[in-house]
């Protein structure tokens, strides 16, 4: 099947490469000529495990092409995916749909014969109707269907998520479009991935409701973690005990410094706006977003408390800057707010990240970047584990102790257990566990 993907960003690129790997003939189009030239030779603009191999393999097999020429790319395609960005609109939190509408206009000017235009970008409910009317007014005689097919890919695990999804959601009321979309996803039926057909507007809302639900779930366990710290309980066991109930489930109950990334903050804001537009309200989502925002700076206060109430004049080392491991994405990463709050409190801040340093240098200033955990820890009065990269899961604590001014670890991802760290003479603080501070070290801190 001939497929065109408009937009070679995160979603477009992963989708194009995976569709090609299924055996479809895929053309991926983007307006950024440097990006396209790089992609043609297999140079990937983002860090995503396995993606460069997948792209190179499918270019070589002549199933995947990249171009800036939209006209040529959409001509003859039976299915066109719109996978352009829908960032937060400056000022009001609404999703900015200008790229989606521009893509729709460009496509309308060129396509021939019955075409399915699929909205893969995350778009508010009703966007499919708008895209349909844009195309209908440009081409009154064209036979086409506009379908919603949201993506549920996690950065860092996107290829696995694409190839073994929990579900494929297709929103269309048209039989013909349904049949073609079944063909597009046929290779996944072998994995018995459930395909769920529904109405277009409902499908659009499923995406936002899913992300908002996950954001609320994380925020919920984060607040329970705060309570555990006060009440001397263990949030990891609370999460486990809750998650054994199948109705709740184990996943997305890891307490931490608050969610970040390109989706949850933007999508929760957009969903709240949508609800308001329709005269409704999503108070629970609105509150979760506000609580999550405040949490990032609260993590800096936790570090300050662990350091005896002040970090003024002290060196603090941060391990991990990206919003989660296995990505170089710094968008809305908790590290940004944590660094700023520590700088505001008078600390000298050292930072490191295995993959995200280049991206981090674009958004974090006033700090010193180090190549690894040990150089970052040199002379530090505390180390803060912000992102749970594998590289920080088996740190050499005797070596760190030698290097650091004071042996304090604030583990914002609960990677370690208090007993194992304290054995090395560290003061250990984590999330959702009562802080334990040996008296002798506390004296040294204050
Ligand atoms: C998310 C959705 O999972 C995905 O389905 C959607 O398509 C895009 O948004 P992503 O942003 O890549 O994917 O990251 P995800 O793995 O969901 O994590 C989001 C944030 O939540 C990260 O900051 C992560 O550290 C945090 N998180 C996640 C927690 O703090 N606790 C958890 O239990 C899970």
Could you explain how this protein is built, in words?
The protein is of the alpha/beta class and 446 residues long. The chain folds into three domains: 2-198, NAD(P)-binding Rossmann-like Domain (Rossmann fold, 3-Layer(aba) Sandwich); 208-291, N-(1-d-carboxylethyl)-l-norvaline Dehydrogenase, domain 2; 296-445, NAD(P)-binding Rossmann-like Domain (Rossmann fold), CATH 3.40.50. 45% of the residues lie in helices and 13% in strands. The protein is built from 19 helices and 14 strands. The protein has helices at residues 10-21, 33-40, 51-60, 70-74, 98-108, 127-138, 158-163, 175-184, 186-189, 200-231, 235-243, 264-277, 283-306, 334-344, 357-363, 373-377, 397-403, 418-422, 439-445, and strands spanning 2-6, 25-29, 64-67, 79-82, 115-119, 144-148, 168-171, 195-198, 315-319, 348-352, 368-369, 382-385, 408-411, 427-429. The protein has a six-stranded parallel beta sheet, with helices on both faces. Strand 4, helix 5 (98-108) and strand 5 form a beta-alpha-beta unit. The radius of gyration is 24 Å and the shape is elongated. The chain binds uridine-5'-diphosphate-xylopyranose. The site of uridine-5'-diphosphate-xylopyranose has 19 residues, from helix 10. Keywords: NAD, Oxidoreductase.
What are the key terms here?
45% helix; NAD; N-(1-d-carboxylethyl)-l-norvaline Dehydrogenase, domain 2; 3 domains; UDP-Glc/GDP-Man_DH_C; alpha/beta; 6-stranded parallel beta sheet; 19 helices; UDP-Glc/GDP-Man; Rossmann fold; 446 residues; NAD binding; binds uridine-5'-diphosphate-xylopyranose
